[in-house]
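User: For this week's homework, look closely at the record that follows, marking any run of repeated tokens, and judge whether sequence predicts the tokens.
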Amino acid sequence: MENRITRLLGIEFPIIQGGMIWCSGWELASAVSNAGGLGLIGSGSMYPDILRQHIRQCKAHTVKPFGVNVPLLYPNIEDHMNIIAEEGVKIVFTSAGNPATWTPWLKERGITVVHVVANTKFAKKCEAVGVDAIVAEGFEAGGHNGREETTTLCLIPMVREICSLPLIAAGGISTGKAMAATFCLGAEAVQVGSRFAASAESSAHASFKQAILNAGDGDTQLTLKELTPVRLLKNKFYSDVMEAYSKDASPEELAALLGRGRAKKGMFEGDMDEGELEIGQVSAFIHEIKPAGDIVREMMDEYRQTRNSLPAL
């Protein structure tokens, strides 16, 4: 399948694996790339030397394109960007910040830049600063999210209307049918996070993967908007946050409750009570741990079947 995204990224299928913290190491990224999609290393949970190791391992395990996701709020971002350039990474997805900050620097070094947005304001800014493509992510998505709480099915056509850049849909997408739906609205690829978090190659703890499989409708919630909005699975930590809200906690008190390392504690170390469990609403539709390559192939098969059935519908 060929379109603007597959040509831009040099991939076979327009499926991008989200660069999730604590889930997206070289094993997952290389598996998705080898299956024809684009794997992303999630640098947001990595020290600079760890990122370098994952890039080198990914290069050793796939000859196909892969990229690195870089949250722009990361404190060691200069070290990360220098390592990415030194190691010859050709594709960078930036998120959680202003695309004007690093896009020119990356472009000067011949790196393809894709930026994640949650609203039309930043989509326009992406186009103005020379970003190569946009991920428009609805608030169904897990992890850090937009304050606007705009759903994917609303966001994609709004961004398509005001922006001519290649467009990738994200948020609540785990199947070929959902992929086809976003293509009808103007997307040219999908970015998939939660489904790959529950894959065999995900670096997430087994207990977190099982919690994803156990999740039901309504078991995630967008919260902590006073800090950085994040969608979490409900657990004891989430209940503690809700109790703090009931007592009119200040942003400073919420930050103290969050502390440091909560996401690592839950998603990577397996503390299902005190950890921050970042996952999307679509977790309620995930019922099985599968190899990442199977997920890519099944999504593409279902996408083709859905497209072929549209005339009959």
